[in-house]
Amino acid sequence: MCEEYAKAHGLIYNVKKSEFLVFKAVGGKCPESVPAIKLNGVELKRVTKFKYLGHLVTDDLKDHEDIERERRALAVRCNMLVRRFARCSPSVKITLFKSYCQVFYTCSLWASFTQKTVNALRVQYNNGFRMLLGLPRFCSASGMFAEARTDDFYAILRKKAASLLRRIRASSNSILRTIAERYDSPITSHLARVLVGRNTD
After folding, report:
1. pTM
2. Is 181 inside any structural domain?
């Protein structure tokens, strides 16, 4: 179907950049044999993870690797701010922190992870803020964010979840509307858990 569509619309697929991924079933089981998949006569490479629109998708549908990707990226951004803006005023540093370190791109999609994995990201976030403002290593995280009028880690997750849920409910797409209207759907129930502060283990 892809080949026919491309031919009819004058498109050419880049087979060197095309890959395929087989999702594991519940329990981690995977098909014993997967037939070769070809595009324009070229066999595609099978992968166990794939970055799609910045989000790392894995064959086990777990979010550990994407959370770790975000943690490493956050560490780089925090270190850059500490090095380049050491002489700026606290208000400027806080503004920069909000702009560069509260992104957490696609975090509202994280639904399957351990507390250990998300704690590592939370600690990175807290330590980055402490370093930027020159605060003691073991000062209260909730206190420093409250004093700086800055969202803590869980506040960001809740805001992102609320934003996604609001957009799903406002969508004209019939599939998204169905998901939003079913309170027993995995997506809706996960977002509800985030909003009330219940973490996924």
Report:
1. 0.83
2. yes
